[in-house]
Structures
1.
Amino acid sequence: MPRPQKHPHALFSLCPENQLAEQVIQEPRNRHLLETLQTEQGETKLALNVGFDIRSKSRSARTLAILGRGDDADIILHGSKISKIQCSFEINLDTKVVMLFHRSFSGSTQVYSTDRPGAMATPFEFPRFRQVVVMDNINEIIEMGGSGPDCVRFRINWHQNQSETMAMIMNERSLPQN
């Protein structure tokens, strides 16, 4: 059963933006991450919590969650173009910001911001870095496993503003201190 609100240790939620992402929400192995979210339009929607409550299978304190179709993933994705380990959300210990790391060899993870109407998604192509900052209004749309209707698309819904997020990260006891 989904939580009626965010987990107190969650930094953000992954909100499904298409049918393939809805299938991820319905995946039984993701059930422990479900929350009920109120949209800006007043609708109730299911989403996946991401934060310090997950305790990633990576066993790295800085990893919030690994997404993919394999057994080593914390959030299970579906699709023939999804890698066993597609991407991960991790804390940069120096800057205390959340980063999205692209882990797939296929280059099928893309990000973009909704504040740029009509903007194209940015793929992680060689020689670009395989990591980007994600925060409110920056790279808040993630597409994995293809493009257009063939991708799994999520919107990141932050639970607090950026300064509150950074304070929460700095106060997290499980992270190594610099």
2.
Amino acid sequence: MFIIYADSKGSNVTLSPRAGEGHAPPKFTQGTQAFLLEGSGIANGKMTANVRCSSCLKWQDSTLDVTSTQSNWIWAAKDGSPMSSDSQGANIEMHDSNGQLTFDLTRARSGNSLNPFIAQAATTAATGASPSTTAASSESDESDSSDSGSAYGSGSSGDSGSQEESPSSKLRNILIAHGVIMSLAWVIFFPLGAILIRTISARNVIHIHSITQSFAYVLAVTGMGLGVYVAVNPESVIDQYHPVIGLVVIGLATIQPILGSIHHRIYRTKRQRTWWAVAHVTLGRLVVTLAIINGGLGLRMAENTRAGEIVYGVVAGVIWLVWMAIAVRAEAKKYRARGLVDGEKHINGNDKS
């Protein structure tokens, strides 16, 4: 794929040939013989890239049929401020819109001309004809491929995404919903349920805890479903670290109600803490902590903004620290109370002797 963005001066574009590798941000591909030709630049808010590629007939595992008169291509665009970077390996964010178009590649050959775009521009000016879409510049003119001012390769413009939601926009919205729901579950409600059972002395606190954690679990499973959908569309990335950790977290979270129920049943008869409670509490803290960390990994995998990652990290970190402080305080209080009880038993035992 040919990716372009504004250079540091804002007067020209940076061309970054990259190979697409599934549902993941493409990385700059070294050694690609693709170059910008004269006529490339930024004018009237529109980026133009006249590209000459000498090594594009075979691209890794793919080949390009230059005899095709209906070659299928796709374009994608990102809204917002210019990147203003001269680096071909600059990090890019996921696109906001995309579409499809076709080219007649039999007209996309340069022949003996070093820069057919300039030659065609001169011919167009002399004849007064309307410029046609080109195989090179149409790739960079994301939303209006019918007015590129270049010559070779005719094609039809793709859907700009303004009339109906494109597949990538739908995936993006599902991805956002996944992130929001998972953040609510693991950053807000799961820690909240753990905090409430340590800070409220009401008789029905166990029911409040159960309801809160059950609601958080429903959110987490819903978020998992959305995440799995995104991870297998359009190509599967379910084997990458974020989805794998997420599925493990959900699996461990499913065990939690079982451990809690067993402990509660025994506690009602013995009125003392059991090893089931220790397992329930310890596993819960580990799972929620792992889920919060995995949320940060998910933001990075989704190429979220740096500001978004910072906000998530700060909010999640503060809530986690508050939760841990309350947990430590509650445990210390239990040990002090247990020490007092043991002391009283020892004194009473000595009195009886």
3.
Amino acid sequence: MKTRALTIMATRNQDQDIVAEFADRLGSRIEQGEERYLIPAFGWHPWFSHQIYYDSPSEICGPPTKEEHYKRVLTPAPENADFICSLPEPKPLSGLLQQIRNHLERYPIALVGEIGLDRAFRVPGLQMLDEYEEDPALTSGSRAGRRLSPHRVVVEHQQRILTAQLNLAGEMQRAVSVHGVAAHGIVYDTLAQTWRGHERSVLSKRERRRRASVNAVHGGPGGESPAMSSGLLVSRPYPPRICLHSYSGAADTLRQYLQPSVPATIFFSFSHLVNFSPSSNKAVDVIKAVPEDKLLAESDLHAAGDKMDNLMEEVIRTICQIKGWSLEHGVKQLALNWKRFVFGEAIPRKA
């Protein structure tokens, strides 16, 4: 494997401990001046959000039955008893948040992800596809060759699960990877709700010049992060850095994320598996519009190896071509962007 940085995302119950095991076995290291990173990420993907029930201290009725829960969070509400029976026993959100918290405390560089919203996803049903070849690289709990049912996860339920994970990431000041399909407006609204009341002050040009003069005279800071105080991290209800992964929104949706008042740093990631097709140039227009320090590249593949390396090389070459970069400049810029996303300002130095 040629790729020097792996960001491994958990998506469901079966993945969380597997990601932790890989982090323990392989870990990140800087040896003889060569950087190799394995960054674990823990969280629940929207495809599995229906397996979680929202438990609140204010609710005194106790947990819902399995049937009550799935009829509440799936639309249309399922009536087939065999289908409901085939679904996993729902887990309380509080317990899953504690599990994520434990992993984040154990791994100081871990991220929260993959989390998000998906209005297109349908829950796998009971019937199997006519032809299905099992992929040994997939962990248990996936679709596993089943046909899709008509049932989708209620968006409001997805938002509650997403918001809780965003709040935890903000509390622990970890970056997040966000999935968004057929839900770009709702994703933005959900993210913006977490930083409401914490927006950055947008100064006029005159005020910026005045402050710059004062800082020059008194040696004041040039631009302290809103989540830093005396060098210590301060909890916030929003994550400090957000990656919108395999971003499929239109170019005109970028403006809302790049407003100076947004207190989080937003990155936009692209993959060949999701973003590029012969029938659409949308990704080209978006990449042209993304500031160069906010671009990320990814494979969006579930397994490491030669195929992942080839996908990474392909998307990096494509981004360089679109941005008019040399390959050397593009590789360095994208690597620096990834480090800023993962580590913030505390980028590790080579030995």
